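Dear support,

I submitted the protein below through the web form. The confirmation email said the job was done, but the results page showed an empty box. After a refresh the structure appeared. I'm attaching both so you can tell me whether what I see now is the final result or a partial one.
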Amino acid sequence: MKRVLLLGGTGDALRIAKQLGPEHVYSLAGLGKVPDDLSCWVRVGGFGGSEGMARYIQDEGIDLVIDATHPYAAQISANAARASRTAHVPCWALRRAGWQPQAGDDWRMVDDWAGLTAALASFKRPLFTLGREPLAHLDEIPPQQFWTVRCLDAHEATPRARILATRGPFTLEGERALFSAESFDVVVSKNSGGSATEAKLEVARERGLPVVMLRRPELAAVDREFANVADLLEALQVSA
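What the results page shows now:
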């Protein structure tokens, strides 16, 4: 197998990392728990943009870059594609499909934070499942709203916000219990795709709640794209 630089940040990336030997590198931005049970080398921290990543690829003799970061990590994906071109190595990406609205869904699509806050103006108890971004806006909570923010980062609660520092996957039963206890009237989500956090959408559907959905960003072109982990691992074996 070629020497791989795997850019992580999702549960799917960890599944790939578990199949990599000690000559390969699993790179994380440093958020959340760092795995300590892998055969491959785990690297934590940034590269210094695309130029720094290109130098790392060349200095470490990397033969293949795999971008398995979050679908909304557009800057990291752009850096990976640019660095790979500079270093003259191929770049593959794991790009799972987004969720699709189903019968009974009420999705309100927005492009940015300004559109999101405008869409929430008439609601009182939103559940934010965007990650850490809402933490930077806790001083902007409208007087009529109480926020629940679910993310990886522990954060001190405020008088009008509750922070749930937790990591998926989330079960349907658990989401039903949470929604019932907190009386949310709207869900705020990224269209991450996958099954780990999809239960919230099913519960929103069951309860007739709208979902304010942040559209996916456009991602940089790469040499090969894969919709699932199994196909990517099979391609890795073929290229060994």
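Response: this is the final, complete result; the empty box was a page-load delay. The chain has two domains: 4-96+218-239, 107-214.
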